[in-house]
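Task: fold both queries, return tokens.
Query 1:
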Amino acid sequence: MQVTEINKNPLTRTRFKFVCSKLPQCTYFCQTVTIPGIGLGEASQSTPLVDIPIPGDKLVYEDLNFTFVVNEDLDNWVEMKNWLDDAGYDSTLGTDNSPWAELFADGSIVVLSDKSNPVGVFTFEDMWPTSIGALEFDITDADDAVVVADVTFKYTRYTYKSI
């Protein structure tokens, strides 16, 4: 009989890294991320006495949200804003010269072990930003608090793979 070793270490909330080819400046500045929930719609089978719920045929993915620290020269915020600008205004959309595919990128959340080794990867396919939050400056802060920005992405689907 083969005995399988069980990993008894808990998953730590602070061990992850965000990676996206369109956002290289954000890789080491991501502070929080929420892996989106997934729902399966439902249909209803009518019967004379009661409607019976049955599984639907479409998955519904929640948005991908994360918060990143804005670096001092705002490079990471600017690359995020430029991506959002490109997605929001493109005079060539709907023409033969449309760079539609260039508006999407795959992104990954690499989950790290307590020793900072990769243990798994969430891959978000064909993602694009839908919003970037406001930058808040406050001269009354006693500390040198860092400026952060919230970002929301849509995507077609995501997968998880253990490493």
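Query 1 returned. Query 2:
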Amino acid sequence: MFENSTLFNQDLSGWNVGNVFSFTSMFKNAERFFSSLDEWDVSNSFNISSMFEGAKDFDANLSNWNTSSIVDMSYTFKNTGKFNHSLCSWKHNIQLLENVKEMFHSSHYSQDLSCWNETSMPNFNATADTCSNFGYPTYDSSLWPMPVRQTICENIIDGALIV
């Protein structure tokens, strides 16, 4: 919708998106976009892949999102310059999550995601293809307990799969 609109930055906080099934690439490369989306109802969405990819100024809190229907979060925050809010509140809402490929690749995300574990994601398929580049640019493996490291991609560090 706003993909490649590099100067776009409007207030969308009041939008009713409750019936949207896919937000794929919605703000991809909208470099200046920064709007509060914390009240958006994304509970019916199954795909947020590349939603904020390349949105360099985006740093809104998304902790209120109900992500319980989302299957694909691949590339969601790839190449974001500022996004660094905790997503631990999503831990009870990621049961259907299957794909996190390059979710945080080349981003500045440094929050602890040890709250996302194998019980949070029973459908998660931890394969090299699905999980490549899930880790943080400043990845600290101590943030993940051993069972989580094994389940979530066998210690991915900046796209290098370490097994």
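Both queries returned. Flag for query 2: Residues 126-133, 135-163 have pLDDT under 50 and may be disordered.
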